[in-house]
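lol ok so funny story. i was supposed to be doing the assay writeup but got distracted and ended up predicting the structure for this chain instead. priorities right. anyway since i did it might as well share w the group, maybe its usefull for someone
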Amino acid sequence: MSHRLLIILAGCMVLVVGSVSLPAAEKPPNVLLIMADDLGFSDLGCYGGEIETPHLDALAGNGLRFTQFYNTARCWPTR
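and the output, tada:
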């Protein structure tokens, strides 16, 4: 066989092997951490607060809400 035919056959084999579909990798979840200064647990509408927070309520309705999330009493991460 000529070298040209071998190259064509090798190229076809690469295309055939490369076209085999592998299972798609699972997409990692999106994480949104909201840090606000002087915001209490009951200030958001999704946690029963009186202040209307429609955009945050929509995010909370379609995602995961933490109900036991504590931090230290420092305000420097938000300033």
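Helices lie at 3-18, 54-61. The CA atoms of residues 41 and 54 lie 16 Å apart.
back to the writeup now i swear
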